[in-house]
Design goal:
303 residues; mainly beta; Immunoglobulin-like; 5-stranded mixed sheet; elongated; disordered N terminus
Length: 303
């Protein structure tokens, strides 16, 4: 998701203008290729199976890709989307199920990639009746790593999975992930076209295990965290403190619950009187000696 909303706007304009229309079906032999693969072409009713999508660049160096997977929703239930070990290192749109029942994805590969068998993502599915299930692709766009973002032709084949009454397939592997998400950068920026030119923060973590699940954000002027003040959000995130006097904490949590936190220190330090904690210390510091004086005075007058 998921640089989501910013890049979502950018990719819808820039990729559309660069690509024009998707180049699929009848294309030259040197076209980049997307293809599905799984452990079996048949699955039994109620059994889960993992179907993976791969990329063959056909000796071309590419650095951006987007597309949609059409799943046969009448007979197939999507259990999980996996992309932890994807060659996509920066997701513009993390793979997600749209309201129309499509799996949408978009991302870039900094530095480019030239490979014949690169893993993009996987779908864990289950079928509830005997059926012939066709997985298709649409709106495919791939850009070359040539400094110009030149579009390259794309070819693919539909994938057919048969659901039969009984079939033994290797079980889907439930990955055990105990590794934190990878290090990521936090960037504060502003743009007249985004959030009315207010300051916002951009972040995008990667996880080579089961994938990033969500992000938590907290702003605090004192640098002290509160468990109740974490906000679940996505990138870009509009800053609450537009004066940039707050510490900004961003926590990336993967689907296994592993987490990694990053912090940006405030650009402008707050004055000592702007920190309520200092006032608490001052008040307590005044109350204690006054209390002692009061007790002494009472003791003197009692005599």
């Amino acid at each position: 998701m998921r640089l989501k909303k910013i890049i979502k706007k950018i990719i819808s304009i820039s990729l559309a203008s660069l690509f024009g229309v998707s180049l699929v079906f009848v294309v030259p032999a040197t076209a980049a290729e997307l293809f599905f693969d799984s452990r079996a072409n048949e699955v039994g009713i109620g059994q889960e199976i993992e179907i993976s999508l791969f990329l063959n660049t056909e000796n071309k160096k590419i650095n951006a890709i987007e597309g949609e997977i059409i799943i046969p929703s009448d007979f197939v239930e999507l259990k999980e989307i996996r992309y932890g070990n994807s060659i996509i290192s920066l997701w513009l749109e993390e793979p997600f199920l749209t309201e129309s029942g499509l799996i949408r994805f978009a991302g870039i590969i900094p530095g480019g990639l030239n490979d014949a068998n690169s893993y993009l993502l996987s779908l864990v599915i289950e079928s509830d009746q005997v059926s012939e299930n066709i997985f298709d692709l649409k709106n495919l766009n791939i850009l070359l790593h040539d400094g110009k973002g030149t579009p390259t032709p794309v070819k693919y084949e539909r994938y057919k999975l048969l659901t039969v009454s009984e079939q033994k397939v290797l079980p889907v592997i439930n990955k055990i992930d105990k590794t934190k998400p990878e290090e990521f950068e936090l960037t504060i920026s502003r743009d007249i076209k985004i959030f009315n030119n207010d300051w916002f923060i951009i972040f995008a973590a990667q996880d080579k295990g089961v994938g990033i699940d969500y992000y938590l954000i907290q702003e605090t002027r004192t640098g002290r965290l509160s468990d109740e003040k974490w906000i679940k959000s996505v990138s870009p995130y509009k800053l609450i403190d537009q004066s940039k006097k707050s510490y900004i904490f961003v926590k990336a949590i993967d689907k296994a619950g592993n987490e990694l936190s990053k912090t940006i220190a405030p650009e402008y330090k707050i004055k000592w009187w702007e920190d309520w904690y200092n006032w608490v210390i001052i008040i307590l510091g005044m109350i204690l000696p006054l209390t002692v004086v009061y007790m002494l005075i009472r003791k003197i007058f009692k005599k």
